[in-house]
């Protein structure tokens, strides 16, 4: 273990010494440890952690994941009647069939196909943290871990509250309890994606603070920003992270962003597909039952489906918001670099490095796409709402045409 001892600044302020740890993978994994644990319960094994050293999962562990899926499917179709024919039952269980397909494909992709990508992501985070000198800041990782528990607790609270609705309307059954895990798994994977994007955004935000601090110190301004919970007031620390080195860190962040995109491509795509089916089926079932006499039980059943559809739409909105936050932070990076470039009071070397950094930022937009078909941003949500609205209008017009033709 090495130590970077900082010298005393001209104004007599002595900065705190920073421990540069040889390996901080364990600290990074602790930020997502509860998510990895829950994934293991579902048979999803991303890698094998041996005292901070990441290795490929063994064949036995991969087979165990397949066995867990088979056992769950056997229990599911044994104790439920999802295969029973009927318009209401068939439409009600289409999303469940989609989630079962997503479940097994997620196991195959995560545990068999993209294992090296998983390992590369966390090793990349380790290199970034070392470059930004935050690998020794235990408070930084504790805050990230608390954030994970907060998000996970929120999802569990939402699921618990939703599962109370069948009790309230006397609609609870063993089928409801058995179906719940596949819905929770999808939300768990969405949470995992959002957490990784937030981790990237946080490190990009630190780059922005270094850019701001470098410009402020060179201008003689001591009102600098806090970077990792404590103000870095020693110029020697900031000098070690030159703009060219910050550009290198940004390139690593952009590379990790592309890896996360590759890893969760299928998840985002299937989440959009499943939510789209939720919406269409909810519209179809609502239009069907409003034409007949509704009893209390049917009304309660429709209300529960509408509530669940709203919750799932909220998860899609969460994905879009997180991706937009990353893009917004990148825009802030671009603005700070531009301010350095146009500041002719700074050294020419710094301005030239900033120009190169700006070209790098423009080359990596940090946008999440779905198999390069479309970007996950605000426009995607508007298009989704537009398609659902068109479908609603279409479904409303069908009965009118049928009634008109029968007259």
TrEMBL record:
UniProt KW keywords: Cell membrane, Membrane, Receptor, Transducer, Transmembrane, Transmembrane helix
Top-level division of the source organism's lineage: Eukaryota
Membrane topology: Multi-pass membrane protein
Coiled coil: none
TM spans (from-to): 59-77, 97-115, 148-165, 177-200, 263-290, 306-327, 380-402
Pfam families: 7tm_7 (PF08395)
Cell location: Cell membrane
Family: Belongs to the insect chemoreceptor superfamily. Gustatory receptor (GR) family.
Protein purpose: Gustatory receptor which mediates acceptance or avoidance behavior, depending on its substrates.
Protein name per UniProt: Gustatory receptor
